[in-house]
Amino acid sequence: MQFGAPAFLFCFFLLLVPIVIHLFNLRRHKKVQFSNVAFLKQISVSAKPKSDLKRWLLLASRLLGLACLILAFSEPYLRSSVSHSSPNKVIGVYVDASMSMSCSDGEVTLFDRAKMMATQIIDQFSLNDTYILFGPEIRSQQLTQEQITDQVQSMVYANDFQSFASDFKHIKKTIKKNQISEMHLFIISDFQKNTFENLSESDSVISSFLVPIQGCNTENVLIDSVWFDTPRRLKNDQEKLHYSIRNTSENPYENIPLEFTINTQKKALSNISLGANQRLDSFMTFQSNQGGTQSGVLTISDGALSFDNSYYVSYFLEDSIKALCVYQKNDKYIKPLLENEPFVDLNTTLFSEVNLGELSEYDVLILKNIEAFHSGFSRAVDRFVSQGGTVVVFPPTTLKDFSAYNAFLKASDLPEITGLDTQKVFISQINDNTELLANVFENTPVRSKYGRVQNVLQTRTSSASTAEHLIVLENQRPFLSSMIKEKGRVYMFYAALSPNENSFYANALLVPVVLNAVYQSVFSPSYNVLFSKHIFFDVDLPSSVRSDALFSVDRYPKGLSVIPKVKQIEHRASVQLFDALDAPGNYSLRQEALTIPFSVNYNRQESDLTPLSEAQLDQFAEGLGAKILTSDVSNFQASVQGLQIKTQDIWWYFILCALLFFIAEMCIAKFLKV
Fold it and tell me: How far apart are CA 355 and CA 377, in angstroms?
């Protein structure tokens, strides 16, 4: 017999209290004077044996009743060895198939050792027993001994990272679903600290046994993350790739090779050094001279885990920026500024001849000196911005009807026009903290160097407006404001681009501001997806994609091609791949001429191989109500054969005995006459 709460056994010391009271009865005796006590003495002598017997019986019944209560609260149960345990048991085997188990101890991986030990455990039980295999991404079902042995041998690494707490919830659901009254659960794992900490929940139905597998070198260097400064990039442009590399070991590493490859071409090479438990955040520069889909991979070489030595990154490189200038009278100043830019494909058209249906084909829209926005044009421009386009507006100074402009500005949360200020004023503030103006000046000039402007439209700004004022005049009115609207941005100048009405056409700010607005209009988002059994992510779609379009997902450079489930909501699509992908890498979502690259990478939470310490493992086992078994290969089988398994709770027997003893006490006190 063993106890689930042996601490209650210390309460046996309380049984000394009734014994002391019985032996040292402190009741005071009252003396009564009689003339002759011969008869009383005779009665006393004859009654004393019966009185002593009654007191001893009362003491025994009380002590036995209290002792039974103490034993009941100590949760007693019976155990027997594996070979002598009751037949038709339910045996649960949990095999950790996470990526941390791919670590090798020099001969075999921890995962292979775990499968071998699971087989040895199964062999110790009977053919008549019921078996259930648990693990990450395993759909549990009741199996025979032969079936579970085959399933253990065919197990592969789990794609998805999840903590043991979530797996344990699944185990308890399986027990409840199958109405299992008792299960013997063997948990075989490296007990990685990231996965097994913060769990303290036992289950009276489960008798758990922990089999820790160690011996693997926990030193590891991993690529934690990779990113770009901005999603805007063009062909032949200088790129800056940031990376974060981490050393999880207590030892330093020197001269680790680091290589970045795009479309099988090596773009950057370097060697890095890391101190103990150090993180290195740095970058490398490269240049891509080919447009289209860019499939890159950053790799390092270290001797521990291999799954976190590569980090994939994919994006689409635009060959050029498609810009459209819509003007009322002439396209002077805009066409000379952009037509000779090597990456800008500029088209110009009169406002009266613009084709609203073709706006979605452009990246940036420049509106120059348009006197009035009709409702159809305003809606088309608003839709263009919402889908990710950039709009730059130069209004005419000769505005007569502000209402049409203000309707457009109000919809974009920009300051509304109230009149015209013909005075010459200095530009006093340049917001060089913004991306548009960040690199315009090498040194911040004095205010007079910004220049003066005139014929500036007066504005009224709502207190609730979130518009950003990039250029501000000395009268604190905005000269250039911007507003992000959904996926796009609107830049609004409050003065005309005309020598007859304003001097800004000759201002040195015009060229960098317009060029930056155009170059920053191109977005090449890099979609990074975590590798799991159920992959799903969202992407932006151009308006030209039909709602019933058929998509495919292809691996770079070639090989896998699958049909995903795509659900479109307006111009955004939710892509679901379930378990269609078998490995991380670079992929593309395709639909006719549309290509959206995305990369798939392993979750890095498995990269820290630090296991639970001996004290932490003991605490974990105590919280789970489990026993720790040795994982030593030579002693493991003997440890399993001599295993003691909880077979029956017997606390309620002691409760019943306690009641019987207390009833016996009452009967003795009432019916035993002295």
Answer: 10
No. of helices (H) and no. of strands (E), the chain: 13, 35
> Sheet holding 344-350: strands in order across?
344-350, 321-327, 364-368, 390-394, 488-493, 478-485, 468-473, 425-430, 452-453
238: region left, alpha or beta (phi > 0 left; psi from -120 to 50 alpha):
beta
How is 91-116 classified by DSSP, letter by letter? EEEEE--SGGGG-B-SSSBHHHHHHH
CB proximity list for 363: less than 8 A, separation 6 or greater: 318, 321, 322, 323, 389, 390, 521, 522
Look at residues 223, 363, 241 and name the one whose alpha carbon lies nearest to residue 314. Answer: 241
Summarised one tens digit per residue, pLDDT across range 294-311 is 999 999 987 667 888 999
Q: Dihedral sign, CA of 202, 203, 209, 214? A: negative
Cis peptide before 557 (omega within 30 of 0): yes
Please count the other Cβ atoms lying within 10 Å of the Cβ belonging to residue 330: 13
Would the pTM of this model clear 0.85, i.e. be above it?
Answer: no
Angle made by CA atoms 305, 310, 314, in degrees to the nearest 5: 155
For residue range 626-635, list pLDDT tens digits in order. 888 876 656 6
